[in-house]
Amino acid sequence: MKTIHVNASTRYDILIGSGLLASAGEYIKNAVGTCTVVIVSDDNVYPIYGDSLKHELESSGFKVLEYVFPHGEKSKNLSVYGDLLEFMCENRVTRKDAIAALGGGVTGDLAGFAAATYQRGIRFVQIPTTLLAAVDSSVGGKTAVDLKSGKNQAGAFHQPSLVICDTDTLKTLPEDEFSCGCAEVIKYAVLGDEAFFERLMEKDIHDQIEDVIATCVSMKRDIVEEDEFDTGKRMLLNLGHTFGHAAEACAGFGILHGQGVAMGMTAMARSAHAAGFCDEATVEKITAILKKYKLPTEIPYRLEDMVNAAFSDKKMAGSTMRIIVPERIGKCSIMSIPAEELRVWMERGGIK
Ligand code: NAD
Ligand code: GLY
């Protein structure tokens, strides 16, 4: 097992390893003491891991409640969030109790936002079961639900008290969902670690899963400790996301998030090369590694639609927009550009 300490407004540990769910009671007791734990999970994940987690927590002395919702982004909304809060109220959950978010990023974001706001804030534990959640969403305290007008438009910063990442849970994850997590892993390598990038090229992520998660999470920890509230360096984590979110919107959210990020990273690398910020070899390496992990590298949507979609993205600050530009593998920078220049960046990236 690897343990990574996070020293943010809340201090907590991230535990990464095989078979950790079998000792979850002991880990959670150390982090929050004995209390009532509400397991929040979706209807794909709870049937696989929910009962064994419940029994493990009960045998460690916890009272356990479970709240299971329909899987998918469509459940990350105010209605499910409100229902979860009512459920906790009806079951007399108090400020001394805690939530355990068992699932992917949808579960973590929804349960985390409920924890941030229920009775002005209770503790929560992240138990990520997707690669994306393991390397990104379970760490750093961003919690949210979507509004009709956009993704993550209602949310809060609320750090977990513990993250338990049992790598065995990834064995039941569908291959396309695993591949989407790979896009986020590759993002970290492009952002800040050339040697890591080479390791991902040489050896499959499946065969080094614990090390890969620990490397990504350590990088995210360093960024979060420096910029917990996302006013500076943390924006680097949006590499590939400006174009990626626009691609997701153009696809009517019919593509997975990681596929959008992969498309966005390639287009941004091409654009950065055309503008003289990075060499052609950087573009080729990014394209090659995304293809190796079966991720798309072309944006098939119309320039006009992509521009419109990007303008409704919340990363626009007034008349300027922040984009993350690769300079070489292992180094990217945050650039503020006039909003009207975005079209040029997209055109240079090969979007027609
Ligand atoms: P998800 O939670 O919907 O999980 C993807 C699918 O995999 C779901 O159908 C789920 O039921 C299933 N699943 C999960 N674990 C499984 C397992 N072990 N075995 C079998 N099936 C399993 O989606 P995701 O990709 O994990 O997360 C995407 C969400 O994360 C988005 O809402 C995004 O906005 C959010 N996000 C948040 C942050 C953050 O910092 N808070 C960062 C990145 C993404
Ligand atoms: N996933 C982006 C962030 O945590 O800031």
Structural summary, described in words:
- This protein has 352 residues and is α/β, with parallel strands linked by helices.
- The protein folds into two domains: 2-172, 3-Layer(aba) Sandwich (Rossmann fold); 175-348, Up-down Bundle (Dehydroquinate synthase-like, alpha domain), CATH 1.20.1090.10.
- 45% of the residues lie in helices and 22% in strands.
- The chain contains 13 helices and twelve strands.
- The protein has helices spanning 24-32, 46-59, 78-90, 105-117, 131-137, 175-192, 194-202, 209-226, 241-250, 257-274, 280-292, 303-311, 342-348, and strands at 2-7, 11-17, 36-42, 63-69, 98-103, 123-128, 142-147, 150-157, 162-166, 316-317, 320-328, 331-338.
- A seven-stranded mixed β-sheet has the order 1-2-9-6-5-3-4, sandwiched between helices. It has a three-stranded antiparallel β-sheet with strand order 10-11-12. A two-stranded antiparallel ribbon has the order 7-8.
- α6 (175-192) packs antiparallel against α7 (194-202).
- The longest helix has 18 residues, at 175-192.
- The mean pLDDT is 96.
- Nicotinamide-adenine-dinucleotide is lined by residues 42, 44-45, 48, 71-73, 76, 103-107, 109, 129-130, 132-133, 136-137, 140, 142, 151-152, 169, 172-173, 177, 180, 257.
